[in-house]
Specification:
The chain is mostly helical and about 110 residues long. The chain has helices spanning about 5-20, 20-30, 50-55, 60-75, 90-100; strands spanning about 50, 80, 85-90. It has one domain (about 5-100): Arc Repressor Mutant, subunit A (Orthogonal Bundle), CATH 1.10.10. The chain is globular.
């Protein structure tokens, strides 16, 4: 990952969005779309309807919508309207962008 301002800004927005416990929970639910030990690919990534995704969180629908919009704005969650429902999912490429942050840089290996 390059160290330019754009990359830093994108990472800051993503981590800021994930700093809220409800958003982190929602993101984690979307991240667990695939069987453990397998690799998710966009063609088979599970899409959740907003209502299903928020089950058991004990938050108002308007608050749920706000949290999902913040995750979408930060580039972590994709959203698409399908009739009366809104589907949400995580594109694996977005996760790859975040995971690079946690990998040691080439200069650390010198």
């Amino acid at each position: 990952m390059s160290n330019n301002k754009t990359d830093s800004t994108l990472l800051c927005e993503a981590f800021k969005a994930l700093s809220n416990p409800h958003r982190l929970t929602l993101f984690n639910r979307l991240m667990n779309c695939c069987t453990p030990g397998t690799k998710c690919i966009p063609a088979v990534a599970v899409r959740y309807c907003v209502g299903k995704l928020g089950e058991g969180l004990d938050i108002a629908p308007s608050t749920l919508s706000h949290h999902l919009k913040e995750l979408n704005r930060a580039g972590l969650v994709e959203m698409e309207r399908k009739g009366k429902n809104v589907e949400c999912w995580v594109e694996p490429a977005k996760i790859e962008r975040l995971s690079v942050f946690f990998q040691p840089s080439q200069s650390d290996n010198l």
